[in-house]
């Protein structure tokens, strides 16, 4: 039997049309105003070996029992179609031409072309060589399968939203129009659960067959996704797979269709794997920020592939390569599809409100991951989203909880990270961030009972008070510093220290002790507002100007020896307590694991009195 595997897609709005290299290579083609067909000028070669329209041949052969592969294209004009394949072995792409076919079509027609059986390249695709102006209306790839290769899939999408109406309403409408009301097979096997933590959506306005809005307590991303999992497993018919997705994203319906098709065709040995969708950056729509993440041996969380421009063929082929074995691999929940059996076996997320819940779940399940070019979405990048209330308190409290509860990431010393960041933030006079780190450690030491209580939203609100406020540079009105030059391209320069300054800086904790305050420099230096560490600039000064060059905002920090002494005393006390309780804490968290991940626990947390007001 012949199965449609992948539909050609073209840029459908002006923003992505400016990034046409993700869809096709060659000069930019004119597109119709009322449709998405491409007008290809004479003698202008257009190449479809791209992130969205190349076919991941070797992966489809690996994960499914793919037989003969066919290309269908709907065109009009005088042109050649050349079938091509590409491999990459670490030097440059190796191109192979399979065959060329000539067509002269006076009207719009669909042609079918078979790829040769000897294909073995990572990616296969096609090129259009026009001899006159041509029109390309669309197309798709199909594969031959035995009926026994196909299984039934019920795919449930669970997305969590909280005050992101602009995104979620648009995405619900898009999914209804492009999937639920389409003629594609997926339309009969696709369900949408929108978990509304902000409770700002009116369910009756959006609910329809196979789309339900669930008003929910604000129990963070982990609680929202737990609710989505529960609803998916109890829907009728019960979901075979649950796709977790962020709300503030630009969705590509074709990615969902490819995910569904792949799920129906997976070989038995790959049916337990998770499918992870790549995140492309909204700020630069041709850059893939991450497909999979990993926790390194030193505790740093980073992408397996980082910031690849996927208009470049070589980067698309790097993503087609078989990944080396990566420890602590996980798929972020901006797009992560998992089989029902994984949830039934491994339970629900930990109740850690926000951040690192997807990391822990991926490491807990350890399923193996499938990625595929073209299965993705666009999400706002993280370069401009440093938020100490999240990136310090939530991350480091949660990593300690995760390590103790699930037993993952053993051998990683997260306390070393806390100590290092504590010192860095103190040296930068960033006392609010120092206190957030201490709160993270102290709340971890409250034990699992503290997580069982619903404090997440209150904690986040309280922690936000410790995040320093930056104002637009033009509104910064401190007369003492009006003559300071701020060069945005030099904000992150490291600066220079003499040996004696370096020694004094270390001994005095950057002027906090053993050093006369009158000897600190009055003139401030400009440093980055986020993770950057710039000792050459900040050494032995009374004031630091912190700048976010992307947002053009600024703030002032002033050395405060009293705060230093109080925070130092508190930190030393916390460290003593932590090392005294460390083993017992680990045991109590581990004992709570089965409770935390159970449906009974989550139902108790989700359906308290204020959730009952919604009539659920």
Written description of the protein model:
This protein has 616 residues and is an alpha+beta fold. Helix content is 33%, strand content 25%. It is built from 20 helices and 27 strands. Helix 5 (220-234) crosses helix 19, helix 10 (388-406) packs parallel to helix 17 and helix 12 (431-444) runs parallel beside helix 17 (561-591).
Protein topology:
Layout: E1 2-7, H1 14-17, E2 30-31, E3 38-40, E4 46-47, H2 57-63, E5 69-88, E6 93-114, E7 123-130, E8 134-144, E9 155-161, H3 165-180, E10 190-196, H4 203-206, E11 211-215, H5 220-234, E12 241-245, E13 249-251, H6 253-265, E14 274-276, E15 278-281, E16 287-290, E17 293-295, E18 301-303, E19 308-309, H7 313-320, E20 329-330, E21 335-339, H8 340-346, H9 357-365, E22 369-370, E23 376-379, H10 388-406, H11 414-427, H12 431-444, H13 448-452, H14 456-464, E24 471-472, H15 499-507, E25 525-528, H16 535-538, E26 543-548, E27 553-558, H17 561-591, H18 593-596, H19 599-606, H20 609-612
Parallel strand pairs: 9-10, 9-12, 10-11, 14-22, 15-23, 25-26
Antiparallel strand pairs: 1-8, 2-3, 3-8, 4-7, 5-6, 5-7, 5-8, 12-21, 13-23, 14-21, 15-16, 16-19, 17-18, 17-20, 24-27, 26-27
Short synopsis of the structure:
Helices cover 33% and strands 25% of the residues. Strand 10, helix 4 and strand 11 form a beta-alpha-beta unit. The protein is globular.
């Amino acid at each position: 039997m012949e199965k449609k595997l992948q539909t050609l897609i073209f840029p459908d709005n002006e923003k992505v049309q400016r990034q046409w290299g993700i869809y096709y290579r060659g000069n930019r083609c004119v597109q119709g105003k009322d449709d998405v067909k491409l007008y290809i000028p004479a003698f202008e070669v257009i190449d479809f070996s791209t992130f969205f329209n190349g076919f991941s041949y070797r992966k489809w052969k690996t994960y499914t029992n793919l037989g003969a592969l066919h290309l269908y294209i709907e065109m009009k004009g005088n042109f050649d179609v050349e079938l091509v394949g590409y491999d990459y072995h670490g030097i440059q792409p190796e191109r192979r031409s399979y065959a060329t076919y000539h067509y002269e079509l006076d009207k719009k027609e669909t042609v079918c072309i078979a790829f040769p059986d000897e294909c073995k390249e990572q990616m296969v695709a096609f090129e259009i060589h026009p001899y006159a102006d041509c029109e390309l209306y669309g197309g798709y790839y199909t594969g031959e399968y035995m009926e026994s290769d196909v299984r039934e899939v019920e795919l449930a999408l669970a997305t969590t939203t909280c005050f992101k109406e602009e995104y979620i309403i648009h995405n619900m409408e898009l999914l209804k129009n492009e999937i639920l009301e389409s003629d594609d097979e997926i339309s009969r096997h696709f369900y949408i659960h929108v978990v509304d933590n902000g409770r700002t959506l009116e369910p009756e306005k959006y609910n329809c067959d196979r789309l339900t809005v669930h008003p929910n307590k604000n129990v963070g991303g982990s609680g929202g996704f737990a609710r989505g999992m529960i609803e998916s497993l109890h829907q009728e018919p019960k979901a075979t797979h649950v796709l977790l997705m962020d709300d503030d994203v630009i969705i590509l319906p074709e990615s969902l269709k490819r995910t569904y098709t792949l799920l129906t065709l997976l070989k038995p040995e790959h049916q337990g794997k998770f499918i992870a969708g790549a995140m492309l950056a909204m700020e630069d729509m041709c850059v893939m920020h991450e497909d999979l993440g990993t926790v390194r041996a030193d505790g740093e969380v980073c992408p397996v592939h980082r910031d690849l421009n996927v208009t470049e063929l070589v980067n698309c082929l790097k993503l087609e390569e078989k990944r080396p074995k990566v420890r602590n691999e996980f798929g972020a929940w901006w797009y992560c599809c998992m089989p029902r059996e994984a949830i039934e076996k491994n339970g629900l997320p930990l109740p850690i409100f926000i951040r690192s819940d997807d990391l822990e779940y991926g490491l807990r399940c350890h399923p193996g991951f499938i990625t595929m070019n073209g299965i993705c979405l666009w999400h706002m990048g993280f370069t401009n989203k440093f938020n100490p209330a999240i990136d310090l308190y939530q991350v480091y409290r949660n990593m300690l909880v995760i390590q103790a509860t699930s037993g993952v990431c053993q051998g990683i010393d997260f306390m070393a990270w806390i100590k290092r960041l504590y010192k860095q933030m103190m040296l930068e006079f960033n006392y609010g961030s120092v206190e957030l780190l201490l709160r993270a450690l102290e709340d971890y030491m409250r034990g699992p009972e503290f997580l069982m209580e619903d404090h997440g939203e209150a904690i986040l609100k309280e922690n936000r008070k410790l995040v320093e406020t930056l104002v637009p540079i033009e509104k910064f009105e401190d007369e003492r510093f009006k003559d300071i030059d701020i060069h945005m391209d030099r904000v992150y320069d490291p600066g220079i220290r003499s040996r004696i300054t370096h020694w004094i800086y270390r001994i005095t904790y950057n002027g906090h002790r053993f050093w006369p305050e009158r000897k600190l420099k009055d003139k401030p230096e400009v440093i980055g507002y986020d993770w950057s560490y710039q000792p050459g600039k900040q050494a032995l000064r009374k004031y630091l100007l912190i700048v976010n060059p992307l947002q053009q905002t600024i703030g002032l920090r002033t050395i405060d020896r009293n705060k230093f002494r109080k925070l130092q005393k508190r930190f030393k006390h916390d460290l003593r307590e932590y090392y005294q309780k460390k083993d017992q804490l680990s045991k109590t968290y581990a004992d709570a694991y089965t409770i935390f991940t159970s449906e009974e626990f989550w139902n108790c947390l989700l359906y308290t009195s204020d959730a009952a007001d919604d009539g659920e």
